[in-house]
Amino acid sequence: MTDSIRFLMCPPDHYDVDYVINPWMEGNIHKSSFDRAREQWQSLYHLIKENAIVDLVTPAKGWPDMVFTANAGLVLDKTVVLSRFYHKERQGEEPYFKIWFESQGFTVHELPKDLPFEGAGDALFDREGRYLWAGYGFRSELDSHPLIAEWLDIEVLSLRLMDERFYHLDTCFCPLTGGYLMYYPPAFDSYSNRLIELRVPPEKRIIVEEPDAVNFACNTVNINQMVIMNKASDNLKARLQEAGFTVLETPLTEFLKAGGAAKCLTLRVTEPIIIDRHAVINIESRTVLMEGHLLDAGLINRALDLVVEGGGSFQVLNFNLGEQRQSTSKAEIKISAPSHEVMEEIISQLIDIGVVSLDEDQRDARLQPVEQDGVGPDDFYVSTIYPTEVRVDGQWLTVQNQRMDGAIAISETPNGLVAQCKILRDLKLGERVVVDVVGLRTIRKTESREPRNGPQEFSFMSAGVSSERRVELIVEQVAWELRQIRDRGGKVVVTAGPVVIHTGGAQHLSHLIRQGYVQALLGGNAIAVHDMEQSIMGTSLGVDMKQGVAVKGGHRHHLKVINSVRRCGSIAAAVEQGVVKSGIMYECVKNNIPFSLAGSIRDDGPLPDTQMDLIKAQEHYAELLRGADMILMLSSMLHSIGVGNMTPSGVKMVCVDINPAVVTKLSDRGSVESIGVVTDVGLFLSLLVNQLDKLTSKYGVVQVG
Ligand SMILES: NC(=O)c1ccc[n+]([C@@H]2O[C@H](COP(=O)([O-])OP(=O)(O)OC[C@H]3O[C@@H](n4cnc5c(N)ncnc54)[C@H](O)[C@@H]3O)[C@@H](O)[C@H]2O)c1
Q: Catalytic center at which residues (predicted)?
């Protein structure tokens, strides 16, 4: 027996599965055997008693989980941080444990009422006492960690739990004597896994596989070189033995029904103490402000979800709810993250939905010089589609050429400082680039009710193909917009793939161009080739467009067409020489509509107009997109996604594709102005042309008889 090691246990007199607060309890209400539970608990108790001192706390009736004393609190030396249970089902245990700790002379620290922390279930000391691993995500709140660090004077390393089955840190993580760590990596997010790997060298990491993890192998009591657990596979036993441990198995199946095993049933009250230790807190906090129709537009939920999904936690410090339908609400939120890196990621997403830092927290953006043409500093801020402002020398600059996936470059000009979005290759030596996420905000109209970044705008197609009526409604809406844009001299850009031709849509798109609804066309080699194939030979990819049947040898048609156009020197020349007499390309040339054909690896020919230098093609696309009011994206995944990335928010986008995944991919950019239509593109274009003709027809004169 090791005199110096003490544990606290609680006899299972009132143990049962009475409610469901974790996945293990599901289907197990009142399914545990009282006798077997008592027997299993006794075996564990005796095993530990042979090796350490065990104190007992008196079980209280009505609190069946009191048997899991790991959740009584977290003890270091003569100090205890008492648990604040997350679920009301366990909150009644708190006073009983408090009485016990006080009776034993511990200094008891209690967390604020709404700050859950579940004791040694979610906080495990490195066995040399150098630091404390603390879990969060299910039961304990990240914001409890700084208080624990301060009260126990120790460095706290926060780990985020991701798998509901492993809801407490001690269900999937077990520091062992000699600096070893037995754990189940998939229970943690990637940041936490990196942190573990930074602190524990590879030879000390004992990775547990899923079958052992679900047998609660990590829920182990470690006394010096001994590990006591419910069950371990031969592999795990061998690995532990190799590391110098003796494995003792003692079945605890009755307690597994409640989601606990050996470690959960014990609380170690004598932990190794390092005298020269200091509180170290890696957690970063920031306070941000949100303003607008926070509830109607679902913005507040979206913001809080982003914080939690990103690995942080939040506290709403103030919430002023607008009283009338038109009044806006205001919320002040404190956000915590386990590291600067995680905070940066969370804040950059919050900036996208219009969250701003509080006035007192407003700082200039951090800028770093470009040290090599075409290469940004390491942690450059990645731009989004939203209108952004950046604070330089105390002054907010509007970012020009807003687009997604660029860097924000600041340059000095005779007219002062200029901020603009640039793609990496355009960065120039000497320019300064925004890094980090301070001094940035996106501009969102506070009166807007549109759920920016919300999935709603695309939700109608996420169920699959939109219903016919739904398509008709969207066509009506798009037709109305097209008419409005044309009448006010606006700009509509179409990006289209060859499917437009194969589905019989060429005549409709040609009609739109002729009628002045299209101001620029973007595509690849294929749409132009197949359009002209149809014009010259009546086929599209060898299929007779009138009969709908494949023409013998028709697959060669498009190559012949490419050859003819190459002979002419350009598409425009082919039109002027009468080689191409109708179709989309013909209408573009005849109506002076600029087009850009971007090359790709699968292009035949290519046509003389196809730009095979991709950088030039991207630049030409960007030029034609500038000033667009609306973009119609017609059945080309490649070009639609390319165009989507180049376009700032505020431009209406209509994406038509038969594949919901393509439409959803475009919705990921989160623009509220986007509409997705899952339907056949030929059908869409024919409905659109009909609707436009209806909208623009002369009023019929009613004959009075
Ligand atoms: N002969 C050639 O030179 C040739 C031929 C084909 C493609 N290409 C080139 O390959 C690149 C990619 O071509 P892409 O744009 O055809 O392919 P893509 O895969 O990028 O896009 C085709 C899209 O059309 C959708 N689609 C299929 N049938 C549809 C229908 N009936 N209605 C609506 N949507 C439908 C698909 O779901 C897909 O998203 C382009 O650069 C193109 O020019 C060249």
A: 168, 264
396 CA to centre of ligand 1 in angstroms: 43
Query: Can you tell me the distance from the alpha carbon of 656 to that of 667, in angstroms, rounded to the nearest whole number?
Result: 12
**Dihedral of CA 395/396/402/406: which sign?**
positive
Cβ-contact 219, 260 below 8 angstroms: yes
3-class SS of residue 14: coil
pLDDT single digits (tens) 15-26: 999 999 999 999
Weakest mean pLDDT among 476-480, 643-647, 664-668 = 664-668
Q: Is 168 a catalytic residue?
A: yes
Give strand pairing partners of 366. Answer: 435
Element (H, E) at 334: strand 329-337
pLDDT digits (tens, 9 = 90+) for 72-130: 999 999 999 999 999 999 999 999 999 999 999 999 999 999 999 999 999 999 988 88
Check 10, 174, 218, 264 and give the catalytic one. Answer: 264
Contact 683, 705 (CB under 8 A): no
Active site residue 264: yes
Largest CA distance in the chain: 113
Do 663 and 461 touch, CB atoms closer than 8 A? Answer: yes
Gap from CA of 634 to ligand 1 centroid (Å)? 10
Residues present in the chain in total: 705
- Residue 476, burial from CB neighbour count under 10 angstroms (0-12, 13-18, 19+): middle
Evaluated on CA atoms 444, 449, 452, 458, the torsion sign reads negative
Q: Is the pLDDT of residue 401 over 60?
A: yes
Mean pLDDT, rounded, for 678-698: 92
DSSP 3-state helix, strand, coil percentages of the chain (rounded to 5)?
A: 35, 25, 40
CA nearest neighbour of 148 among 135, 167, 161 = 135
Q: Are 616 and 599 in contact (CB under 8 A)?
A: no
DSSP E strands in 110-268: the ranges are: 123-125, 131-136, 155-160, 173-176, 180-183, 205-207, 221-223, 226-229, 246-249, 267-268
Q: Cα(524) to centroid of ligand 1, in Å?
A: 9
Q: Judge contact between 670 and 529, C-beta under 8 A.
A: no
Question: Is it the case that residue 449 has pLDDT exceeding 60?
Answer: no
How far apart (Å, rounded) are the C-alpha atoms in residues 475 and 477? 5
Q: Domain extents for the chain?
A: 6-281, 284-449, 468-696
Ligand 1 shell residues, CB under 6 Å? 497-499, 503, 524-526, 529, 558, 600, 602-604, 635-639, 657-659, 662, 680-681
